[in-house]
Design brief:
By secondary structure, the protein is mainly alpha-helical. It contains 14 helices and 5 strands. Strand 4, helix 9 and strand 5 form a beta-alpha-beta unit. The longest helix is centred in the last third of the chain and has 29 residues. It starts with 9 loop residues before the first strand and ends in a 7-residue tail after the last helix. The protein binds tryptophan. Tryptophan (TRP) binds next to strand 1 and helix 8.
Protein backbone atom coordinates (compact mmCIF):
# COMPACT_ATOMS: atom_id res chain seq x y z
CA UNK A 1 0.00 0.00 0.00
CA UNK A 2 1.53 3.36 -0.98
CA UNK A 3 2.67 5.63 1.88
CA UNK A 4 0.17 8.31 2.56
CA UNK A 5 -1.75 9.81 5.42
CA UNK A 6 -5.29 8.56 5.71
CA UNK A 7 -6.73 12.04 5.65
CA UNK A 8 -4.86 13.16 2.51
CA UNK A 9 -7.22 14.34 -0.25
CA UNK A 10 -7.81 11.74 -2.93
CA UNK A 11 -6.81 12.40 -6.53
CA UNK A 12 -7.94 10.45 -9.53
CA UNK A 13 -6.63 11.10 -13.02
CA UNK A 14 -6.33 8.92 -16.04
CA UNK A 15 -5.51 8.61 -19.70
CA UNK A 16 -6.92 6.64 -22.58
CA UNK A 17 -4.13 4.41 -23.85
CA UNK A 18 -4.48 5.38 -27.50
CA UNK A 19 -0.78 6.16 -27.98
CA UNK A 20 2.36 7.05 -26.05
CA UNK A 21 2.21 10.32 -24.13
CA UNK A 22 3.72 13.57 -25.34
CA UNK A 23 4.89 16.96 -24.12
CA UNK A 24 1.31 18.22 -24.01
CA UNK A 25 0.54 15.58 -21.39
CA UNK A 26 3.72 16.47 -19.56
CA UNK A 27 2.85 20.13 -19.00
CA UNK A 28 -0.87 19.41 -18.79
CA UNK A 29 -0.91 16.75 -16.10
CA UNK A 30 2.13 14.51 -15.70
CA UNK A 31 4.25 17.15 -14.02
CA UNK A 32 1.46 17.85 -11.54
CA UNK A 33 1.01 14.20 -10.76
CA UNK A 34 4.64 13.92 -9.77
CA UNK A 35 4.38 17.12 -7.73
CA UNK A 36 1.22 16.08 -5.88
CA UNK A 37 1.87 12.41 -5.21
CA UNK A 38 3.34 12.93 -1.74
CA UNK A 39 0.68 15.28 -0.42
CA UNK A 40 -2.32 13.40 -1.81
CA UNK A 41 -3.56 9.86 -2.04
CA UNK A 42 -3.21 9.54 -5.79
CA UNK A 43 -4.70 6.99 -8.17
CA UNK A 44 -3.92 7.01 -11.87
CA UNK A 45 -6.21 5.05 -14.12
CA UNK A 46 -5.18 3.65 -17.50
CA UNK A 47 -8.60 4.05 -19.10
CA UNK A 48 -8.52 1.22 -21.62
CA UNK A 49 -12.26 0.56 -21.44
CA UNK A 50 -12.90 4.22 -22.21
CA UNK A 51 -10.34 3.97 -25.02
CA UNK A 52 -12.59 1.36 -26.63
CA UNK A 53 -15.52 3.79 -26.79
CA UNK A 54 -14.08 5.25 -29.97
CA UNK A 55 -11.70 2.43 -30.93
CA UNK A 56 -14.06 -0.51 -30.84
CA UNK A 57 -12.71 -1.71 -34.19
CA UNK A 58 -9.12 -1.41 -33.06
CA UNK A 59 -8.74 -3.01 -29.62
CA UNK A 60 -5.21 -3.98 -30.55
CA UNK A 61 -4.20 -0.34 -30.47
CA UNK A 62 -5.58 0.03 -26.96
CA UNK A 63 -3.96 -3.16 -25.67
CA UNK A 64 -0.53 -2.29 -27.07
CA UNK A 65 -0.54 1.15 -25.53
CA UNK A 66 -1.37 0.13 -21.96
CA UNK A 67 2.26 -0.66 -21.24
CA UNK A 68 3.50 2.33 -23.26
CA UNK A 69 1.46 4.71 -21.11
CA UNK A 70 2.55 2.96 -17.93
CA UNK A 71 6.18 3.33 -19.04
CA UNK A 72 5.59 7.03 -19.63
CA UNK A 73 4.22 7.45 -16.10
CA UNK A 74 7.14 5.69 -14.49
CA UNK A 75 9.70 7.43 -16.70
CA UNK A 76 8.54 10.93 -15.70
CA UNK A 77 8.66 10.04 -12.02
CA UNK A 78 5.20 8.86 -11.07
CA UNK A 79 6.32 6.62 -8.23
CA UNK A 80 4.37 3.47 -7.35
CA UNK A 81 5.49 3.92 -3.75
CA UNK A 82 3.21 6.98 -3.66
CA UNK A 83 0.81 6.61 -6.59
CA UNK A 84 -1.46 3.68 -7.35
CA UNK A 85 -1.50 2.97 -11.09
CA UNK A 86 -4.40 0.76 -12.20
CA UNK A 87 -6.08 -0.73 -15.25
CA UNK A 88 -9.70 0.28 -15.81
CA UNK A 89 -10.92 -2.85 -17.61
CA UNK A 90 -9.78 -5.01 -14.69
CA UNK A 91 -11.95 -3.15 -12.19
CA UNK A 92 -15.39 -4.61 -12.62
CA UNK A 93 -16.94 -2.45 -9.89
CA UNK A 94 -16.58 0.50 -12.28
CA UNK A 95 -18.93 -1.14 -14.76
CA UNK A 96 -21.50 -1.93 -12.09
CA UNK A 97 -21.45 1.62 -10.83
CA UNK A 98 -21.83 2.89 -14.40
CA UNK A 99 -24.94 0.81 -14.86
CA UNK A 100 -26.52 2.21 -11.69
CA UNK A 101 -25.58 5.79 -12.58
CA UNK A 102 -27.11 5.52 -16.06
CA UNK A 103 -30.51 5.57 -14.38
CA UNK A 104 -29.79 9.04 -13.01
CA UNK A 105 -28.90 10.66 -16.35
CA UNK A 106 -31.14 11.46 -19.31
CA UNK A 107 -30.26 10.92 -22.95
CA UNK A 108 -30.91 14.63 -23.53
CA UNK A 109 -28.33 15.51 -20.88
CA UNK A 110 -25.80 13.14 -22.40
CA UNK A 111 -26.27 14.74 -25.80
CA UNK A 112 -25.91 18.22 -24.35
CA UNK A 113 -22.47 17.59 -22.82
CA UNK A 114 -20.22 20.10 -24.66
CA UNK A 115 -17.21 17.75 -24.70
CA UNK A 116 -19.28 14.97 -26.22
CA UNK A 117 -20.91 17.33 -28.72
CA UNK A 118 -17.48 18.53 -29.80
CA UNK A 119 -16.07 15.06 -30.13
CA UNK A 120 -19.11 13.86 -32.09
CA UNK A 121 -18.47 16.69 -34.51
CA UNK A 122 -14.70 16.16 -34.88
CA UNK A 123 -15.06 12.40 -35.24
CA UNK A 124 -17.88 12.78 -37.76
CA UNK A 125 -20.20 10.35 -35.95
CA UNK A 126 -23.38 12.18 -36.98
CA UNK A 127 -26.27 10.16 -35.50
CA UNK A 128 -24.20 6.96 -35.59
CA UNK A 129 -22.75 7.56 -32.17
CA UNK A 130 -21.63 4.42 -30.37
CA UNK A 131 -23.83 4.27 -27.25
CA UNK A 132 -20.73 3.55 -25.17
CA UNK A 133 -19.19 6.76 -26.42
CA UNK A 134 -22.25 8.85 -25.57
CA UNK A 135 -22.22 7.36 -22.09
CA UNK A 136 -18.51 7.62 -21.35
CA UNK A 137 -19.01 10.63 -19.05
CA UNK A 138 -21.17 8.40 -16.87
CA UNK A 139 -18.46 5.75 -16.82
CA UNK A 140 -16.00 8.48 -15.92
CA UNK A 141 -18.29 9.55 -13.08
CA UNK A 142 -18.05 5.93 -11.92
CA UNK A 143 -14.23 6.10 -12.10
CA UNK A 144 -14.07 9.29 -10.07
CA UNK A 145 -16.61 8.35 -7.43
CA UNK A 146 -15.42 4.76 -7.04
CA UNK A 147 -12.18 6.15 -5.63
CA UNK A 148 -14.07 8.90 -3.74
CA UNK A 149 -11.76 11.35 -5.46
CA UNK A 150 -12.30 15.02 -4.65
CA UNK A 151 -9.49 16.34 -6.85
CA UNK A 152 -9.43 15.53 -10.55
CA UNK A 153 -6.59 17.12 -12.54
CA UNK A 154 -7.65 17.24 -16.19
CA UNK A 155 -7.37 19.30 -19.36
CA UNK A 156 -9.94 22.06 -19.82
CA UNK A 157 -11.86 19.91 -22.33
CA UNK A 158 -12.77 17.55 -19.48
CA UNK A 159 -14.39 20.15 -17.23
CA UNK A 160 -17.94 19.43 -18.51
CA UNK A 161 -17.40 15.77 -17.63
CA UNK A 162 -16.59 16.63 -14.04
CA UNK A 163 -19.68 18.87 -13.93
CA UNK A 164 -21.77 15.97 -15.12
CA UNK A 165 -20.12 13.74 -12.52
CA UNK A 166 -21.16 16.14 -9.78
CA UNK A 167 -24.74 16.22 -11.05
CA UNK A 168 -24.83 12.45 -10.75
CA UNK A 169 -23.28 12.64 -7.28
CA UNK A 170 -25.95 15.10 -6.12
CA UNK A 171 -28.73 13.05 -7.66
CA UNK A 172 -27.53 9.88 -5.92
CA UNK A 173 -26.99 11.63 -2.60
CA UNK A 174 -30.49 13.06 -2.82
CA UNK A 175 -31.88 9.61 -3.53
CA UNK A 176 -29.96 8.11 -0.63
CA UNK A 177 -30.86 11.08 1.59
CA UNK A 178 -27.26 11.24 2.79
CA UNK A 179 -23.83 12.01 1.43
CA UNK A 180 -22.71 8.68 0.07
CA UNK A 181 -20.42 10.20 -2.55
CA UNK A 182 -18.27 13.35 -2.41
CA UNK A 183 -18.32 15.96 -5.16
CA UNK A 184 -15.11 16.37 -7.14
CA UNK A 185 -13.23 19.44 -8.23
CA UNK A 186 -11.58 19.67 -11.64
CA UNK A 187 -8.07 21.08 -11.44
CA UNK A 188 -7.08 22.60 -14.78
CA UNK A 189 -3.45 23.58 -15.44
CA UNK A 190 -2.87 27.33 -15.68
CA UNK A 191 -0.88 27.05 -18.85
CA UNK A 192 -3.37 26.44 -21.66
CA UNK A 193 -3.15 23.61 -24.13
CA UNK A 194 0.23 23.14 -25.74
CA UNK A 195 -0.19 23.85 -29.47
CA UNK A 196 0.82 21.34 -32.12
CA UNK A 197 4.18 22.04 -33.75
CA UNK A 198 2.48 23.51 -36.83
CA UNK A 199 0.51 25.86 -34.59
CA UNK A 200 -2.81 24.49 -35.79
CA UNK A 201 -4.83 23.07 -32.94
CA UNK A 202 -3.52 21.32 -29.88
CA UNK A 203 -0.79 18.72 -29.70
CA UNK A 204 -2.43 15.41 -30.43
CA UNK A 205 -1.45 11.76 -30.44
CA UNK A 206 -3.33 11.10 -33.64
CA UNK A 207 -2.24 13.91 -35.96
CA UNK A 208 1.51 13.36 -36.25
CA UNK A 209 2.36 16.74 -34.79
CA UNK A 210 3.38 15.71 -31.29
CA UNK A 211 6.74 15.42 -29.55
CA UNK A 212 6.68 12.20 -27.54
CA UNK A 213 8.31 11.71 -24.15
CA UNK A 214 10.29 8.94 -25.83
CA UNK A 215 11.48 11.19 -28.71
CA UNK A 216 15.07 10.72 -29.86
CA UNK A 217 17.46 13.63 -30.26
CA UNK A 218 16.87 13.41 -33.99
CA UNK A 219 13.06 13.48 -33.62
CA UNK A 220 13.24 16.49 -31.32
CA UNK A 221 15.46 18.31 -33.85
CA UNK A 222 13.14 17.53 -36.75
CA UNK A 223 10.06 18.63 -34.85
CA UNK A 224 11.63 21.89 -33.70
CA UNK A 225 12.84 22.71 -37.21
CA UNK A 226 9.28 22.18 -38.49
CA UNK A 227 7.80 24.49 -35.86
CA UNK A 228 5.69 27.40 -36.94
CA UNK A 229 7.25 30.79 -36.14
CA UNK A 230 6.34 34.09 -37.79
CA UNK A 231 5.98 33.79 -41.57
CA UNK A 232 6.60 37.55 -41.88
CA UNK A 233 10.01 37.25 -40.20
CA UNK A 234 12.15 36.82 -43.32
CA UNK A 235 15.48 38.40 -42.48
CA UNK A 236 17.21 38.19 -39.12
CA UNK A 237 17.09 41.95 -38.84
CA UNK A 238 13.30 42.07 -39.39
CA UNK A 239 11.09 42.52 -36.33
CA UNK A 240 9.28 39.29 -35.52
CA UNK A 241 6.03 38.33 -33.80
CA UNK A 242 6.13 36.50 -30.49
CA UNK A 243 2.38 35.96 -30.10
CA UNK A 244 1.25 32.82 -31.90
CA UNK A 245 4.89 31.86 -32.44
CA UNK A 246 5.02 28.22 -31.41
CA UNK A 247 8.72 28.30 -30.50
CA UNK A 248 8.06 30.98 -27.88
CA UNK A 249 5.01 29.15 -26.56
CA UNK A 250 7.23 26.12 -25.98
CA UNK A 251 10.01 28.20 -24.43
CA UNK A 252 7.43 29.65 -22.05
CA UNK A 253 6.30 26.16 -21.16
CA UNK A 254 9.69 24.47 -20.82
CA UNK A 255 12.61 26.88 -20.48
CA UNK A 256 13.40 27.26 -16.77
CA UNK A 257 15.28 30.52 -17.41
CA UNK A 258 12.34 32.94 -17.55
CA UNK A 259 14.54 36.05 -17.71
CA UNK A 260 16.52 34.73 -20.66
CA UNK A 261 13.25 34.00 -22.50
CA UNK A 262 12.05 37.55 -21.81
CA UNK A 263 15.31 38.88 -23.32
CA UNK A 264 14.91 36.64 -26.37
CA UNK A 265 11.37 37.92 -26.88
CA UNK A 266 12.55 41.51 -26.72
CA UNK A 267 15.28 41.02 -29.28
CA UNK A 268 13.00 38.97 -31.56
CA UNK A 269 10.38 41.73 -31.51
CA UNK A 270 12.98 44.34 -32.13
CA UNK A 271 14.73 42.43 -34.94
CA UNK A 272 18.15 40.80 -34.82
CA UNK A 273 17.32 37.34 -33.56
CA UNK A 274 16.99 34.65 -36.22
CA UNK A 275 14.69 31.64 -36.19
CA UNK A 276 17.61 29.26 -36.39
CA UNK A 277 19.28 30.55 -33.23
CA UNK A 278 15.94 30.62 -31.46
CA UNK A 279 15.16 27.05 -32.43
CA UNK A 280 18.59 25.89 -31.35
CA UNK A 281 17.83 27.12 -27.87
CA UNK A 282 14.48 25.32 -27.76
CA UNK A 283 16.06 22.14 -29.07
CA UNK A 284 18.56 22.29 -26.24
CA UNK A 285 15.86 22.92 -23.63
CA UNK A 286 13.75 20.00 -24.85
CA UNK A 287 16.77 17.73 -25.11
CA UNK A 288 17.63 18.49 -21.47
CA UNK A 289 14.07 17.74 -20.39
CA UNK A 290 13.52 14.60 -22.45
CA UNK A 291 16.94 12.87 -22.21
CA UNK A 292 16.55 11.56 -18.65
CA UNK A 293 12.93 10.55 -19.36
CA UNK A 294 13.93 8.74 -22.55
CA UNK A 295 16.78 6.94 -20.80
CA UNK A 296 14.69 5.86 -17.86
CA UNK A 297 11.94 4.72 -20.19
CA UNK A 298 14.39 2.64 -22.24
CA UNK A 299 15.77 1.06 -19.10
CA UNK A 300 12.28 0.19 -17.80
CA UNK A 301 11.18 -1.22 -21.12
CA UNK A 302 13.91 -3.83 -20.82
CA UNK A 303 12.09 -5.09 -17.70
CA UNK A 304 8.49 -5.39 -18.91
CA UNK A 305 7.60 -7.87 -16.15
CA UNK A 306 8.40 -5.29 -13.49
CA UNK A 307 6.16 -2.78 -15.24
CA UNK A 308 3.34 -5.30 -15.41
CA UNK A 309 3.84 -6.03 -11.70
CA UNK A 310 3.39 -2.36 -10.87
CA UNK A 311 0.14 -2.36 -12.78
CA UNK A 312 -1.03 -5.62 -11.27
CA UNK A 313 -0.39 -4.52 -7.71
CA UNK A 314 -1.97 -1.11 -8.27
CA UNK A 315 -5.02 -2.76 -9.79
CA UNK A 316 -5.35 -5.12 -6.82
CA UNK A 317 -5.29 -2.22 -4.38
CA UNK A 318 -7.81 -0.37 -6.52
CA UNK A 319 -10.10 -3.37 -6.72
CA UNK A 320 -10.52 -3.30 -2.95
CA UNK A 321 -11.23 0.44 -2.90
CA UNK A 322 -13.72 0.42 -5.78
CA UNK A 323 -15.51 -2.71 -4.59
CA UNK A 324 -16.03 -1.08 -1.21
CA UNK A 325 -17.68 1.94 -2.83
CA UNK A 326 -19.89 -0.31 -4.92
CA UNK A 327 -21.11 -2.05 -1.80
CA UNK A 328 -21.82 1.24 -0.06
CA UNK A 329 -23.78 2.37 -3.07
CA UNK A 330 -25.88 -0.77 -3.29
CA UNK A 331 -26.84 -0.24 0.28
CA UNK A 332 -27.44 3.49 -0.10
CA UNK A 333 -29.75 2.89 -3.04
CA UNK A 334 -31.72 0.42 -0.97
CA UNK A 335 -31.04 -2.67 -3.03
CA UNK A 336 -31.68 -6.10 -1.59
CA UNK A 337 -28.36 -7.21 -0.13
CA UNK A 338 -27.74 -10.95 -0.08
CA UNK A 339 -25.59 -11.68 2.92
N1 LIG B 1 -11.36 11.14 -20.27
C1 LIG B 1 -9.98 11.22 -19.89
C2 LIG B 1 -9.18 11.59 -21.16
O1 LIG B 1 -9.63 11.33 -22.26
C3 LIG B 1 -9.44 9.92 -19.34
C4 LIG B 1 -10.12 9.48 -18.07
C5 LIG B 1 -10.86 8.35 -17.88
C6 LIG B 1 -10.11 10.16 -16.82
N2 LIG B 1 -11.30 8.27 -16.61
C7 LIG B 1 -10.87 9.36 -15.94
C8 LIG B 1 -9.55 11.37 -16.36
C9 LIG B 1 -11.09 9.76 -14.60
C10 LIG B 1 -9.78 11.74 -15.05
C11 LIG B 1 -10.53 10.95 -14.18
O2 LIG B 1 -8.11 12.09 -21.03
Amino acid sequence: MPHCENFAPIILTGDRPTGPLHLGHYVGTLKNRVAMQRSHRQFVLIADAQGLTDNADNPDRIRRNVIEVCLDYLAVGVDPAYTTICLQSSLSALNELTLFYLNYVTVARLERNPTIKDEIRTRGFGRDIPAGFLCYPVAQAADITAFKATVVPVGDDQVPIIEQTNEIVRRINRQAAREVLPEAKAVVPKIGRLPSIDGEGKMSKSQGNAIYLSASRHEIGTAVRRMYTDPGHLRISDPGKVEGNVVFTYLDAFDPDVDAVADLKASYRHGGLGDIALKQRLEQVLETLITPIRERRAELSRRPDDVIDVLRQGTQTSRIVTQQTLEELREALGLFILA
